[in-house]
Design goal:
With about 190 residues, the protein is an alpha+beta fold. The protein has a single domain, classed as lipopolysaccharide transport protein A fold (Sandwich), CATH 2.60.450.10. It is built from 3 helices and 9 strands, in the order ααβββββββββα. The protein has helices at about 1-5, 10-25, 185-189, and strands at about 45-60, 65-75, 80-90, 100-110, 115-125, 130-140, 145-155, 155-165, 170-185. A 9-stranded antiparallel beta sheet has the order 1-2-3-4-5-6-7-8-9. Mean pLDDT is about 80; it is low at about 30-45.
Length: about 190
Amino acid sequence: MKNFFKRHWPLVGLGILLALVAINLIQSGKEVAQEPRMEDVVSKEGLKLKDIHYTHDDPDKGLKWILDAKEVTFSEDKSFITFHNFQLKLKPKKKPGFKLNGEKGDFSQHSGDINLWGNLEGFSENGYKIFTEHILINEKHGHVSTDKHVKIVGPFFSVEGKGLFVDLEKETLKIFSDVTTTVKKEILI
């Protein structure tokens, strides 16, 4: 199982990436904007920013991540964030990078939940891909899950089914039902 997980670390990277993005966006609220325009500031609903590009480099963890989004809205108390038409990039120093595209996401600081929706497509630099319509990441418990259809494609296999649960601490991955796995013939020889 450990060998399986070493090959499929992008799913773990996805969970860690999204948790880091959410935490850093909350902590650095004012640094996210590239000179916000007056029409971007929303009254009692909080702060709305458009066309953001935010980069965070953490040399202690050997990790750099980048968030690009068409729109980000912070609640008035900055405990809840929503973002639309986003791309997240994870660039670790010693492992292949990972990129995730989607339509909508939100983060609740109180619950630790990161919800991502809409044509989610994740790609690692070493050839792994994940596709689904919804992912829930609980950064406090280190869990990634969905009850939607999910497809994971690697250099020598593909697996798809309904429902996904990843325990980032235990390094386990489960797909719950209607599972279909395809292994490429070249690997079997």
